[in-house]
Design brief:
Blueprint (H helix, E strand, L loop, with lengths): L2 H25 L3 H24 L4 H21 L5 H16 L15 H10 L6 H27 L4 H12 L1 H9 L4 H16 L3 H14 L9 H7 L10 H15 L4 H13 L8 E2 L17 H23 L6 H18 L3 E2 L4 H13 L4 H20 L6 E3 L2 E3 L2 H24 L4
Helix pairs in contact: 1-2, 1-3, 2-3, 2-6, 3-7, 3-8, 6-7, 6-8, 6-9, 6-16, 7-16, 8-17, 9-10, 9-16, 10-12, 14-15, 15-16, 15-18, 16-17, 17-18
Length: 443
């Protein structure tokens, strides 16, 4: 693109960034807050531009990328004041507990049901005289940018096309689920997902130990990283990784627990969070929580047999084993494209089959499909379907109503369209994986 054509995009991007800064300034109550919020957003924009330049893009392309960066900042600034029930009932209460009990000293207490790295953030926030809501969201927005960078790196590992990585960066910055998750909802799914995407990109670049370290960090933040972790078995049996490299994972994971342990938190309490997250739905009345899983295809409030949840867990395990089996059988054909495809299939298929899933648990699978769609345009329908399916769940939580419930034969399906869209996306990804491994043709 010529310099002359890049200038309008750059100017509009700078205008959007200025509007985002003005919005942030208007949100601040104290003088300190009025300064910190705009400066933080300015730093986030500068970080996004730096990461692009670090990846070697030209000055003209960097000027054009000011437009999506500015738009991404403005959209997030507009959503910053929104406080959901999750924030009001949980996150704000946890920060207040730290504030009233000595900040980091309260790490020893049984606060919340998040893993300790995120509790470190909440404890540190408790010391600062700025809105807890804004600081929590700023942390997630930071990882939105790191997620976009991870998507760029992953696309570069899959194609030599110079445009696809920039498209992936732009797509992830502006993906509705990414924007809503952090800037609106105040959730932290971009944190563990960004670490997973960087871990996958590092593994494809044959940076073995870096990938395992990033994977351990992702798992230390959220149990849902386990959807992607099985893929590292394929990196091992395809010869891309040695068994001795695996030691990096427990070492890094142990280091994430060390600060909490030094402040007096028992190791058992730290690890029990994973068990509670895996079993906190046992005995609940429904097998689905606004997620586009297979249980979205069953009528709402219909009592399923008690063995249904165990059967679903078994099916999820079989799906995971099946993906690894086909990779093992065709390990000599398991190039970067097939491994990335397997990562998307695992990240969609496991939560699709598991019971008690929430709407946000498809975050990583949707992100990976979007990156694949930037590299191979034929994936656009599957990526769009997965995104729309997840957005249906987001809408159910944020707006307190379902988009297209179905009533038939006296029964009600609350999210049938979302379940079907996610199923189609999963079938597409799985079929593409088999196509790559058996036909060995380009996508």
């Amino acid at each position: 693109m010529s310099t002359q054509k890049a200038r309008p995009a750059a100017r509009l991007g700078l205008l959007l960034t200025a509007l985002a800064l003005i919005r942030c300034y208007g949100l601040g109550g104290s003088i300190l807050s009025k300064a910190v919020l705009p400066l933080s957003f300015l730093a986030l924009g500068a970080l996004a531009l730096y990461l692009l330049l670090r990846e070697g893009i030209s000055g003209r392309d960097a000027a054009v990328m000011l437009l999506p960066i500015g738009l991404a900042l403005l959209l997030r600034a507009l959503l910053l004041p929104h406080a959901t029930l999750d924030y009001q009932d949980f996150l704000s209460q946890w920060v207040e507990h730290f504030r009233q009990n000595g900040g980091l000293l309260a790490l020893k207490d049984p606060v919340g049901n998040y893993n300790v790295p995120y509790l470190y953030l909440l404890a540190l926030i408790s010391y600062l005289p700025i809105s807890d809501l804004y600081l929590i969201k700023l942390f997630s927005i930071l990882f939105d940018i790191l997620l976009a960078w991870g998507g760029l790196r992953l696309a570069k590992a899959l194609t030599e096309d110079e445009g696809a990585p920039l498209f992936a960066f732009t797509m992830l910055l502006l993906l509705p689920t990414v924007i809503l998750n952090g800037a609106c909802w105040g959730q932290c799914d971009s944190v563990w997902a960004a670490l997973c995407v960087h871990a996958l990109a590092s593994a494809l670049e044959e940076k073995k130990r870096s990938s395992l370290a990033l994977l351990a960090l992702a798992f230390s933040f959220k149990l849902q990283a386990i959807f992607l972790i099985p893929l590292w078995l394929a990196f091992w049996f395809t010869g891309r990784m040695k068994l001795r490299d695996v030691s990096v994972f427990p070492v890094v994971f142990g280091l994430t627990m060390l600060p909490a342990m030094l402040f007096g938190k028992p190791v058992g309490d730290i690890l029990s969070v994973y068990l509670s997250q895996a079993s906190d739905s046992v005995g609940w009345q429904t097998l689905n929580y606004n997620s586009p899983s297979v249980f979205a295809l069953t009528p709402y409030h219909v009592q399923l047999p008690q063995w249904t949840s165990k059967a679903a867990i078994f099916l999820a395990f079989l799906f995971m084993a099946g993906v690894l089996l086909v990779l093992f059988l065709r390990r000599e054909k398991a190039e970067n494209a097939a491994l990335a495809m397997a990562g998307a299939a695992l990240s969609l298929g496991i939560p699709f089959l598991l019971p008690y899933m929430h709407e946000r648990y498809f975050f990583l699978g949707g992100v990976l499909l979007c990156v694949l769609a930037c590299v191979w345009p034929r994936f656009v329908p599957a990526a769009a379907g997965a995104e729309l399916a997840s957005l249906g769940g987001y809408h159910a939580y944020l707006m307190k109503r379902y988009i297209m419930p179905l009533r038939l034969f006296g029964l009600t399906w609350t999210q049938p369209l979302e379940g079907l869209l996610m199923l189609l996306a999963l079938v597409f990804a799985s079929a593409a994986l088999l196509h790559l491994l058996w036909r060995n043709e380009e996508l």
